[in-house]
Amino acid sequence: MVKKGLGKGLEALIPQLNVTEADAVHEVAIEELRPNPYQPRREFNQEKLKELAESIEQHGIIQPLIVRKSKVKGYDIVAGERRFRAAQLVGLERVPVVVREFSEVELMEVAVIENLQREDLNALEIAEAYANLMEKANMTQEQLARRVGQSRSHVANMLRLLQLPSSVQQYVSRGTLSMGHARALLAVDNAKKQSQLADLVVQQEMSVRKLESLVYNPEKNVSRETKVKKDPNVQLYEDEFRRYLGTSVKILQGKKRGKIEIEYFSRDDLERILGLIATKMQ
Question: In this protein, which residues make up the domain named ParB-like N-terminal (predicted)?
């Protein structure tokens, strides 16, 4: 699953992480440190962690960890958990740190943004981190998008993954289903159908294009006796709408007039769709 990194550098988004020569670097016992409690990353790449540990064993920790004084005991790691874990593997007793002040919301922001910058999170981890950050910091999608250096449509699309059934979310989390598969499944208006289609995709190792064909052109899988004839031009318009808006769209024809039905899942999803339409009209 390919993810885009942030457009800005980590220090540009969070200036408090920029370590300069003027900063006082302290060495603290490794047992005094605890990981960021808001760390969204569930799994660490063990191979890369071992490579970092080998580097630390040879050269030491060049970049100090950023920490804050913990409300519980010792220090909370704000940035540098991979270095902390690698230092544990090597058996270091003390590590260099720079102590800064961070609020709970800032601590969560750093955890999310740092991992996004390094592309270490899977799609579900990103979606959950966005949702938690919006709730804790009382942010709108637009505010969150600016804070993490991403587009609003990106944020909206990631959050929509949380509307999928848990079984489908697990597929996406493991990388078994791609973001393309997930977007196609979101256009299905029934959770049971979403799960069934997801299982079918995994069983048949189905491509995104094939899944889109099943979702956007279900008539192809209906027998000739039960198939309802539809103007091919109208069908083409429906397909284009669905692909662009990422949701179920139906064009209903009457004798003299018709109507377009666009499905949305929440207020934010409605705003996402309106934003896409407004962008297209510009």
Answer: 26-116
User: What b/e string do you get for 173-197 counting C-beta neighbours within 10 Å, with b at 16 or more?
Assistant: beeebbbebbbbbbbbeeeeebbeb
From 47, 81, 101, 219, active-site residue: 81
Cβ atoms < 10 Å from Cβ of 121: 20
- Over the chain, what is the mean pLDDT? 81
Q: Which amino acid is at 251?
A: I
Q: Is 81 a catalytic residue?
A: yes
Contact status, residue 200 vs residue 168, Cβ threshold 8 Å: no
∠ CA(169), CA(79), CA(64), 5° rounding? Answer: 150
Question: Which residues, 6 or more positions from 108, have their beta carbon under 8 angstroms from its beta carbon?
Answer: 38, 132, 133, 136, 137
Query: What is the set of domains in the chain, with CATH numbers?
Result: 10-119 (3.90.1530.30), 164-220 (no CATH), 230-282 (no CATH)
Taking each helix axis as running N to C, give the angle between helix 46-59 and helix 81-90, from 0 to 180 degrees, rounded to the nearest 10: 70
Banded model confidence at residue 220, pLDDT cuts 50, 70, 90: low
Instruction: Supply the pLDDT for residue 8.
Output: 47
| pLDDT > 70 fraction of the chain, expressed in percent and rounded | 84
Sign of the Cα pseudo-torsion (138, 149, 212, 195, in order): negative
Q: What is the pLDDT of residue 226?
A: 38
Q: What dihedral angle (degrees, nearest 10) is formed by the CA atoms of 177, 178, 181, 187? A: 110
